[in-house]
Amino acid sequence: MVAKKDPFISACATLERGEAGRTGDWRAKRPIIDLSKCTPCKKQKDTCYLCWLYCPDGTINRGIPVEIDLEYCKGCGICAQVCPAKAITMEDEEDLLLKECAILNETEAGGEES
Amino acid sequence: MSKVKIINGNEAAALGAKISRVQVVAAYPITPQSKIPETLVKYVDSGEMKAEFIRVESEHSAMTVCISASTVGARVFTATAANGLAYMHEQLHWAAGARLPIVMALANRGLGAPWTIFNDMQDSISQRDTGWMQVYCRDNQEIIDSIIMGYKITEQLHVPMMVCFDGFVLSHTVMPVEIPDQDQVDAFLPPYVPHLQVDGPEPININPVMLADPRVNAEGVDCPSYMGFRLRLQETLESAGDVILKVGQEFGEIFGRDYGCLLWEYRTDGADIILLSMGSLANEASLAVDQLRDKGYKAGVVALRVFRPFPAEPLRAALSDAKHVVIFDKNISYGNEGATCTETKAALFEGDERPVITNYIVGLGGKNVSFADLEAATLKALKRKGQMNGPHWLGVAV
Q: What's the gap in Å between the CA of B194 and the closest CA on chain A?
């Protein structure tokens, strides 16, 4: 008879944010929101939120400003497609990471000098 | 008290589900098993059976409903055949992978195209790698008994089971069947307790994506890997033979019909010629063996009662004295040979002395196979000492 607590019989997971791991590192393109174009930000009221509605991974919050959780965003680009204000653009993740690294290095180098 | 009824195989299967106190039935009609859901609908409608009969639009949905109901703790039953079983294929893998103790009656039927409604075992053999256990019945008594035992076995192992029997040959043939006493069945078969409790206070995600390697989840708990689940299913099936034997013996003690065996043997004492098959064909082979014995041949029958898990060890033992094994397959693995032939050869590979093996493909699409056919085929195989160039098709020329 199989032991009841054998973890290799019934596969299950709790309903948690990040249950499938930090899926953000799957991303090839990163969504960048231009808040000057984003409807809720411009009007300063809860409206539109189509990106929040369509995000298949629930990584976009419904607030002002609209924020995307890059820990879990897989970069599918649906938000950019559905945004009626064209406020979201998909930019190359690798280029952005290289730029960020460069900024980080500069900051660190600056720190050492002073 | 048990009582004897004159019933066909489909009625025996339906009674087996009823007497096992099945709680959910989801099935779709297909010849030759349509009588099973029809009979169960009558039981449910009249209140004889306290179960939900869920009407579905396809066999795929039938299995999906069974999976869902079994997950939440119901004892479930379905029945199908041929293309209906093929249509379930995806969900068969799911049921086994989700480790659900579903019992399914299968009236073996050939697959189209071209259409046939008649018997062979191509349907269930095509599903042998889905992770389901498969038993093959020789008569209607074995059908009802195998379904009752099936729940006890599957609910211990958390692995589903197909109870296979020959379409029309058994499904539509009446014979005396002893119907076990309900109280005795209740004592033999305790209520089903699901492995996973899904009605707890917190919602859970069942059978989510499993990654290739173990990982830590959002709560910091180690999560198993996909391959670990596959290994456990294999290990469980490897050890399933012991559970099947134990439950079969216990059944015998209570009901007087012992199923403490994975093979069925007939006149194998001192036999150096073995006719090997499955299902009702084994009974036909026993008549052929009587004829062969009368003529001085030391012949016997070995039938695979259980095909998955494959009883390799008992089979090696049963064939240890055989000089010639004649294997009758009601299926064909196109481009190779009959499935039971390949698997028997594999089981014998580890033995020191291997018998001559002849493989006959027989009875496809309901072609009648009489004991005289089996006897003549055996004599032909003996005469040619097995040199027959691959599987030989019995009774057909093109």
A: 9
Report yes or no: A36 at the B interface, CB cutoff 8 Å. no
Q: What is the pLDDT of residues B90-142, one digit of tens each?
A: 999 999 999 999 999 999 999 999 999 999 999 999 999 999 999 999 999 99
Residue range B245-255, pLDDT digits in tens: 999 999 999 99
Asked if A13 lies within 8 A of B229 by C-beta distance, the reply is: no
For residue B195, give the nearest of B164, B168, B223, B158 by alpha carbon.
B158
CATH topology of domain A23-104: Alpha-Beta Plaits (3.30.70)
- Return the structure tokens found at B169: 């040959």
Q: Do B218 and A9 touch (CB under 8 A)?
A: no
pLDDT (tens digit per residue) in B357-374: 999 999 999 999 999 999
Q: Which residues of B touch A4 (CB under 8 A)?
A: 195
In a domain, B100, yes or no: yes
Inspect the interface and report whether the beta carbons of B195 and A13 lie closer than 8 Å.
no
- Place A110 in a pLDDT band, splitting at 50, 70 and 90: low
Mean confidence (pLDDT) of chain B: 95
d(CA A89, CA B348): 65
Q: Note down the domain range covering B302.
A: 263-393
Q: Does A2 touch chain B (CB under 8 A)?
A: yes
CATH number of the CATH domain containing B341 = 3.40.50.920
Helices in chain A by DSSP H: which ranges?
Answer: 39-43, 50-54, 78-82, 93-113
Contact A13 B204 (CB under 8 A): yes
Q: What is the DSSP string of B233-266?
A: HHHHHHHHHHHHHHHHHHHHHHHS-----SEEEE
User: Could you tell me if residue B386 is inside a domain?
Assistant: yes
Across the interface, whether the CB atoms of A21 and B215 are under 8 A apart is answered yes
Q: Which of A5, A6, A14 to mutate to test the interface with B (most CBs of B within 10 A)?
A: A14
Contact status, residue B128 vs residue B89, Cβ threshold 8 Å: no
Q: Running DSSP on this structure, what letter comes out for residue B358?
A: E
Q: How many domains does chain B divide into?
A: 2
pLDDT of residue A111: 56
Asked if residue B272 belongs to a domain, the reply is yes
Within a domain: residue B211? Answer: no
Match 């660190």 to its residue by tokens: A108
Report chain A residues whose CB lies below 8 A from the CB of B207.
11-12
Asked if residue B290 and residue B159 are part of one domain, the reply reads no
Based on the fold, state whether residues B21 and B129 are members of the same structural domain.
yes
